């Protein structure tokens, strides 16, 4: 059995843990079953944004005539767009090669399978296994995987998910038609991308509206814009069966309100029905690590699992599936494991996110429905793009179908309970609310041993920014991460 000071399973946010462990001289092992860099780099937020931005430009050009500018129909260079995307994904190759040259780091390419409470083997692609490896400190950061809904005939019909789209099934050119199953963030983003590139897109959603985690009025505004952009949205719709009609793939569907049945068909079917846990591959039954009914690993406020010495961060603990949340948890774990300072707790009071569709959507905190159900006394503020000079300059008027807004929900003592935005640059406009929601929480009265001053005085410091989650990938990272580049003098 080969022993390590730490084993990390997963090379997304898990790499942050490895870097910190190496910096303090630990003997490390990292296990990765796929491409290095995790979901975000290889099959998620980064490559998708390489497709979103060109789509944004197309939609912007279509609206330019309202400010006196006219463009001819944009020419889409799919090869160039694809090459730029693959260039980002292929950073994983450079990353893996570099990691294999790091001293004190053993890299394993395969699936980790626990053989005991603190031991595991790695199953390689050819079915063989590594030697047994052991550590008293193990971090599970395996992410999640696409959920495949139980649709009759779907396997025989064929489909794509995020993993295969950013892999072997990436199209040589935009499809002529596409069915997207699921109207959440992934479905909404890909609907925007391909509709802008000229694909006839149909979204099928079982719930009563798309973007179900957002405010109802935001969901409605996005749907209306989808309608305007030629995207067919079918809500309250269940899928009965998948099949084929010549070269096309088909879905037999039923309206859950009227009972009406019909068949929709397209070149391809994209399943965007959410994600599932991948803990079934880890053989956790050989450990004392507990999972919930859906397979997510249970963790406490210190990211500890039910077994001492094993931690879980990122998607796998089921607490918000965003890369910036995983980074936040990695930073907390690094602090708790590798410093001698007081342990920090993970706090999820201000988890932000954005949906990079058209129009863009951003969210932090509670929705109005959640606040109302909680019984908290609250007030609502709302401001539309058409009510400010910046929005008017964009050509947005009171009657514009894309007249987005900011909605803020406040409670007693002017506390921010939630903020919700739909419209241009929503992800950037939201971030200040995240900092404000963290300011009171983070500024606890703790004294340094050095000079007896408050670690975080209540006003004027960058601590709330430094400790907040920053929407990834968004331009907010440019301003938030500049703090990491501060060069302190010897007495700073």
Characterize the structure shown.
The protein has 15 helices and 23 strands. The protein is of the alpha/beta class and 492 residues long. The strands form 6 sheets. Strands 4-3-2-8-18 form a 5-stranded parallel beta sheet, covered by helices on one side. The protein has helices at residues 14-23, 38-43, 45-63, 78-89, 91-99, 154-157, 162-165, 185-196, 216-228, 323-338, 368-374, 389-393, 426-442, 463-466, 476-480; strands at 2-3, 6-9, 28-32, 105-109, 111-114, 119-123, 133-134, 138-140, 145-146, 177-181, 200-204, 232-234, 237-245, 248-255, 261-266, 268-271, 275-276, 310-312, 352-355, 361-365, 379-384, 405-410, 416-422. It starts with a strand and ends in a 12-residue tail after the last helix. Strand 19 and strand 20 form a beta hairpin. Helices cover 29% and strands 21% of the residues. The model is unreliable at 442-452 and 454-458 (pLDDT under 50). The chain is globular, with a radius of gyration of 24 Å. The chain has 3 domains: 2-43 and 86-144 and 277-338, FAD/NAD(P)-binding domain, CATH 3.50.50; 154-274, FAD/NAD(P)-binding domain (3-Layer(bba) Sandwich), CATH 3.50.50; 359-485, FAD/NAD-linked reductase, C-terminal dimerisation domain (Enolase-like, domain 1), CATH 3.30.390.30.
């Amino acid at each position: 059995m080969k022993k390590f000071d730490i084993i990390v399973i997963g090379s997304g946010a898990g790499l942050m843990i490895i870097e910190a462990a190496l910096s303090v001289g630990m003997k490390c092992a990292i296990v990765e079953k796929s491409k290095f860099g995790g979901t975000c780099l290889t099959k998620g937020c980064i490559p998708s944004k390489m497709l979103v931005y060109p789509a944004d430009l197309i939609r912007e050009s279509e609206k330019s005539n309202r400010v006196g500018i006219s463009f001819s129909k944009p020419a889409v260079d799919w090869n160039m767009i694809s090459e730029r995307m693959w260039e980002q994904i292929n950073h994983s190759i450079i990353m893996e090669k570099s990691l294999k040259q790091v001293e004190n780091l053993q890299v394993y390419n395969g699936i980790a399978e626990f053989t005991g409470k603190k031991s595991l083997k790695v199953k390689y692609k050819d079915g063989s296994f590594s030697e047994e490896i052991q550590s008293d400190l193990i971090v599970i950061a395996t992410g999640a995987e696409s959920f495949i809904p139980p649709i009759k005939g779907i396997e025989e019909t064929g489909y794509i998910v995020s993993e295969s789209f950013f892999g072997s099934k990436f199209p040589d050119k935009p499809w002529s038609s596409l069915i997207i199953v699921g109207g959440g963030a992934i479905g909404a983003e890909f609907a925007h991308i391909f509709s802008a590139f000229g694909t006839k897109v149909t979204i099928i959603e079982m719930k009563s509206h798309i973007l179900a985690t957002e405010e109802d009025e935001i969901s409605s505004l996005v749907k209306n814009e989808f309608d305007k952009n030629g995207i067919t949205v079918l809500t309250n719709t269940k899928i009965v069966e998948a099949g084929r009609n010549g070269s096309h793939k088909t879905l037999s569907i039923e309206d859950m309100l009227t009972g009406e049945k019909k068949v929709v068909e397209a070149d391809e079917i994209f399943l965007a029905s959410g994600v599932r846990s991948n803990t079934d591959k880890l053989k956790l039954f050989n450990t004392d690590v507990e999972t919930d009914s859906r397979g997510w690993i249970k963790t406490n406020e210190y990211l500890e699992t039910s077994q001492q010495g094993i931690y879980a961060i990122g998607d796998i603990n089921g607490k918000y599936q965003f890369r910036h949340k995983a980074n936040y948890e990695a930073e907390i774990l690094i602090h708790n494991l590798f410093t001698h300072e007081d342990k920090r707790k993970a706090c999820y009071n201000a988890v932000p996110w954005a949906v990079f569709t058209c129009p863009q959507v951003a969210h932090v905190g509670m929705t109005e429905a959640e606040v109302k159900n909680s019984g908290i006394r609250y007030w609502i503020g709302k401001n539309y793009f058409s009510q400010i000079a910046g929005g008017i300059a964009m050509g947005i008027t009171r009657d514009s179908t894309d007249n987005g807004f900011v909605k803020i929900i406040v409670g007693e003592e002017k506390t921010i309970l939630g903020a919700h935005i739909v419209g241009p640059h929503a992800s950037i406009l939201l971030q200040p609310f995240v900092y404000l929601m963290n300011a009171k929480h983070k500024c606890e009265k703790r004294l340094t041993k050095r000079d007896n001053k408050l670690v975080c005085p209540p006003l004027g410091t960058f601590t709330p920014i430094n400790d907040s989650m920053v929407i990834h990938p968004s331009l907010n990272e440019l301003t938030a991460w500049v703090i990491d580049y501060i060069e302190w003098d010897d007495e700073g």
